[in-house]
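Q: Protein A?
A:
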Amino acid sequence: MFNKRVYFRVLPAIFLAALLIFADRAGLLQSWDAKVTDALSVGQPPAGDILIVTIDNASIQKLGVWPWRRSIHAKIIEELTRLDARAIGYDVNFPEAQSEPEDAALERAIAASGRVVLPLEATLSLAGAPPVARDLLLPLPRFSKNARLGVANTPADPDSVLRRIPVKVKTEKGELKNAFFAEILAQAGYKNQTSGPFLIVDFAGPARTYPMVGASELLEGKVAAAAVAGKIVLVGATAPDLHDQLLTPTAKAEMMSGVEAQANAVASGRTGGLREEPFAARALLIILVILLSFYFPLLFRRIRSALIWLFIILVLLGAAALVLAEVKLLISVFYPVLALFLGAAASILLRLSKEKREKGQLRTTLSRYVSHQVVEYLIGHPEKLALGGEKREMTVLFSDLRGFTTLSEKMKPEQLVAVLNTYLTEMTAIIFVHEGVLDKYMGDAVMAFWNAPLDVPDHAENAAAAAIAMRDRLREMNATGAFPEGVELRLGVGVNSGPMVVGNMGGTERFDYTVMGDAVNLGSRLEGLNKEYGTEIIVSESTAAKLSSGILLRPLDLVAVKGKKEPVEIFEVVGRRDEAAPAMIQFAADFAAARSLYREKKFSEAKAAFEALGEKFPADFATKNYIERCVSFLAVPPPSDWNGVWVMMKK
């Protein structure tokens, strides 16, 4: 049920409804409203007793350049009369004399037919109802005295689309003139069923929906009497060069000729055309929809449930519009749909702002110590705020810039800060994209981890992919001038997987959400090993074992890092296999084979293999290391219990 608090919150919805009703009344978004209504309207089938005789390019080529001689028009009227057309709507104005023989021929044809309706044209002012017509352009009296006259203007809406035609217009002298389509209906013996001052045309379809015959075909006797007898025939221009083309709701890709629009108007006038709901009904619908859309998010505990109901309302609005369009009643759904979205948005914003205020203080405090991801997780799981941690299988990443200390000594402090900020921003974004958590910055170094507090099943794969992306992005930044001239950065990355303790570490007044353990320390050591091998990304055997075949690895060494008793197999991450050159894939395989010879104490064969690789890849530092080791062991062989471990004396 509503309470005072809900009543107060509904006030913004009433305000929004008032704004939308005003916008609708003022026609502020009329073109959008009309486009939506066009899409939902259902056209009527074309009337079977309407025929169009076209003044088309083919007829102009056969009968002569436009404008035609009046005797040609006379022959068209005579032929249509002979074929027993019920009414002839001749959509060509004859305001000026041509020549006496020609004009006399047309006068005789119109008088003999007694079925002709001629157009008159005017400048319309649509502000009133009926519209006011100024500057009337009438046919010569000798033609109009034996014909009906109707205003043929087809004023478009603000979006240049013809949708409605005034049924009557008022001259400056106060005389009422019927529309061209209305006079055609009267000539054919039909009553104009349009109830309002404007006929909303119920277009039967796109251009060329109504049957057409060319004027030249008619005069050549190629049109059967059955095609004309008893029908309403409209004659008018369809040749593009005559510039009588219109946009209509059903003809936007290919414009519709003016005479086709008049044919649709004739058919629509006979049935009353389309109807629109009263404005009061539209206003009530806007109010109802915006109240429902505003109240549902407040009513339901879960926003998802409210959104389902709002979607149902949206579907019902569309269905109602389609059903009513079948009975020729157009209802505007644009403003009600807009009301639906605005009401729901306002309500959800109110609800979210309340939740935001409640969590704001906690978020502000936590954001000083942990990453955004961890903040959001801890807000949803406040029990995790207690000091302590849990042991989990995780992956940790350490990265560091090479030679940054030396570089910093050559740069001004403000330049150094700008370079570092640019670099750290890009690297952090990559970590977040790959579902990692930023642990901390340590100068130019970055520490991140995966699989806590959120579960990341492929944590090793994600960490390796992040390392590749960091390396590639830094290369791209160097190449595209992201840093000042002369500054080129290189990084080293170490990645290790294993059991780690993760949680809030520190005191009750200040703590940090981080990871600890031997596996973390090893990750840091691996980052430093890149300097020894001239590599950029090194992973441990525990990480390598979890990687898919899509990551191309090169087995580097079996090392005993400082601070670790057990030796560790290390691998270089070359890159993604599908992006690596065939030569690099072969190099990794050949390096592994040479290293196997080295591990088997076949130092002569290993030296030869490494030297062959060195010729192809002279810049590879690891290959040079192994050549030096082989030379050393050939001079002084290792002890019999040697197992291939290389002891690192540096961190």
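Q: Protein B?
A:
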Amino acid sequence: MLSVFVTYCYFLGLRNLTVIHDAETMIRRTEPHFRVEHIDYGDKAVYAMISTGNTDGVFQFESGGMKNVLAQLKPERFEDLIAVISLYRPGPMDSIPTYIRNRHNPKLITYKHPLLEPILNVTNGCIVYQEQVMQIFRSLAGYSLGRADIVRRAMSKKKHDVMEREKQIFIHGLADDNGTVEVEGCLRRGIDEQTALSIFSEMESFASYAFNKSHAAAYAALSYQTAYLKCHYPREYMAALLSSVIESQNKTAVYIGECHRLGISVLPPSVNESDSKYTVSSGHIRFGLSAVKNLGLAFIDAIISERRVRPYQSYYDFCRRLNGKGLNARSLESLIKCGALDHLDCNRRQMLSVSKTILDDLEYERRRGGGAGQISLFDMGSQSGQNEIAIPDLEEFPLIELLNMEKEMAGMFLSGHPIDEYAPFAKFVNADKISSIMNTEEGRYRDRAKVRLIVTVNKNKTQLTKNNKMMAFADVEDRYGTCEIIVFPNVLEESRDALYAGAVIDVEGTLSLKEEEEPRVLADKITALPPASELTVSAPAPKKAPSNVIDPRRPQTLYLRIPSLESREYRKAKNLLEIFGGNTRVVFYLSETKKQLLAPKSLWMTPNPTLLGELGYQLGEENVILK
């Protein structure tokens, strides 16, 4: 059955299918008989990992809100994964607290009518899937399969006129002009009108957002497969995952950070070990050559093919063997600067100093035919014609220059990071991480939040404003990601000298979050940092209290305006708040009595966009205020 679900996913064109395939291919190098379709879908270790929220890189389970739900649910079977994927959506989300409660306390499960039990027992008494809606219409009201599907579609498209008519048919039934009963209706089947109306309303409230189970099961199959691979084959899986986001520096930085958490090092590229994509090497992950600039796929294939004959022994050995197979000045420079030749016999300064001479000599030899008896300038006195050349004795470049070379050719720092030595200072000032402010799904930060970053400048672009003043747009990064800093004229005047490529700066600013745009920081103050050794770091500085950042360390209050504690709005809000535990206070404003009531701590929460968005949908955005 699961193979059918996964086949369905292939039609969705998901990137994760490629990740699974690539991971599987790497695993087969050591386990030839491994097949992902043969894995155990009841593996306790996989469910334990999912339950702890260590699901970065797991399909559908990466967001902060979903991690929270999984930690509370603690799934133990595949059916739980299908349900949670279906429930974590507007509308069905209301049922999450009930589903979790009933999942852990089966004695609390109740049914509005006994006919519902065989339909809802698999989902702990909650209506979760579109198929269940159809079953309810058939079992409780006697609908045909075709008519039940028509009603399901009407619900999903919010056709109110159709739904009002079907409500009456669901309760009272339908007869033709001759009195022949076409639909029995709930009353004829012994279900009272109030119960029937309650059941219909419950179906109607979420059907427009609900998954059909087959769709959710296909997604859950991919979620489980990615979780299984991460749990049991973390190196192969993370290598495949990194290959899938090779064009995204932010995602790459996040997943490299997850590798470090798992105790897996991401090693720099190597002509003797790297493949085109990220691969497993000596128990760690090796950077892929296709992520390096100026290396065509044909040349990468030539590097890999030639080393299979025997590993490259020296810098000159590499150049000689790849000459005429795509090696040129640009590709050689890229390999040197990214560190792919570091493990040979020369440092980068030495290799760059003789690269032109070597290429010229090899080209001269090639043009002369390269046949037996031809001796190059480097081979004088050598009978074999393959002696190593004389390399000038030069010291290696300073670390910062090596790192900048890597950044230039690979798009990221590989053997370290320019701000590594500033880590104590960043901790001292409680600097924010770029990966955290860029991850809008986690919802810790809101628009206009005050942030502080310790970053290095990648590039800086200036332009004139309408008032003929200069402003700047700077691309910056820390160990965890990249973002854009907008520097308005007044701030630029004070910090112009600090904004150059390679500079390490301290940025205090305001976060700008807009729909369909990457988060950006509007700089309020920029300070050029001196060498890390000159910075004083003692006791941790107190974190300033920004006004709009969602930070559990800072007192905040969520105000919800509802008619009363007996209202539908209160029940909806209560269900949602029970999902997201936390330390942010919740105050209900009762519009009917004009009173404010502090919610019990069991309803305090951790704000995130999913929760706030759903509260806004259920109560009206004007009735949800976080301040």
